[in-house]
Amino acid sequence: MNRSELLEAIDKKYQAMGQDPDVHLSGLLHSEPMKYWDFIQVDALLGLQTKRTQLPDEMVFIMYHQINELLFKMVIWEMSQISHTENITPKKFEMHLMRISRYFDMLSNSFDIMSEGMEIEQYMKFRDTLTPASGFQSAQYRKIEIASTELINLIDYRYRKTIDKNTAYEYAFENMYWQVAGIDHKTGKKNKLMENFEEKYKNELIEWMKEYNKINLWSKFKELPKEHQKNTDLINAMRHYDHTVNINWVMHHYDAAAKYLDHGKVKAEATGGSDWHKYMHPKYQKRIFFPELWNAEELNNWGITNLGGYHKIL
Ligand code: HEM
Hints:
- The protein is mainly alpha-helical.
- It is about 60% helix and about 0% strand.
- The chain has helices at about 5-15, 20-30, 35-40, 40-45, 55-85, 90-110, 110-115, 120-125, 140-150, 170-175, 190-210, 215-225, 225-230, 230-260, 275-280, 280-285, 295-300.
- The model has no long low-confidence stretch (mean pLDDT about 90).
- Protoporphyrin IX containing FE (HEM) binds next to helix 5, helix 14 and helix 15.
């Protein structure tokens, strides 16, 4: 666009809003030039790290969690572009999926920041100030799961037969796989971690379930014309994503937890209070977003073999 076309477009834009274009041009003349720190909101971002103890490694713990939450937000941003695009092409679907996978690869590959980047002695002290909080209470992680697949794949295996398309969202919510971690395994009652989480997020997550019921990644995939559902690049991107979240990330998380909670003679309890070995290791719950894209052997071996590598179908 040349100068006069630009001015004409500006004129049109503001006239359409019932605004005087000259006032806006004058505003432009007097406005401050943009600066990096204002655009990125650096001051606000760097003002969000508040330690609760005198232990320096607590800062590593807080900031790494914040980085995770930022990346979760980036993941949700990409997912929503798949979900809210009508008649999406396989190419666009795959592009966003690969962006999402790269974010999760980044999170998986950086988990050493947790396992190697803190002193066990410090962690064992500052974690006491966190109880009963846990990353388990990350609502964004739950949103990612819900927007990835049909709800049935997130329901605790024991209750899957009691759920169908007509089941109330509230009932589904009460039987999501993660409810197991919300039970104190000694008393059998809902623990404080879960009570707090539900008080803050239950309604929001139920709304999210409704929103993504028909536009989650799996439903969008099944909606594609049959020939596109056979597109190997897209299938590989779906498998890569499933594997990255439900095996790679989960295993890196498990290993970090084991390093701290299993290190002493007396095994430590999780801050949230779950039976965490069984809860976190993928071989037990076998959480899978897209089970139809894996063969019987791969499903059986989920979380047992195939840990390091995900292989492409040809
Ligand atoms: C030393 C580091 C970490 C340890 C020891 C740890 C430990 C645990 C444990 C034991 C649980 C099971 C629930 C419970 O009883 O609390 C859990 C769940 C969870 N944590 Fe972590 N965690 C660590 C770092 C992180 C980080 C950096 C994140 C990123 C946000 C995170 C996110 C989560 C999520 C999303 C869950 C729920 C996962 C699920 O339901 O399968 N954790 N964590």
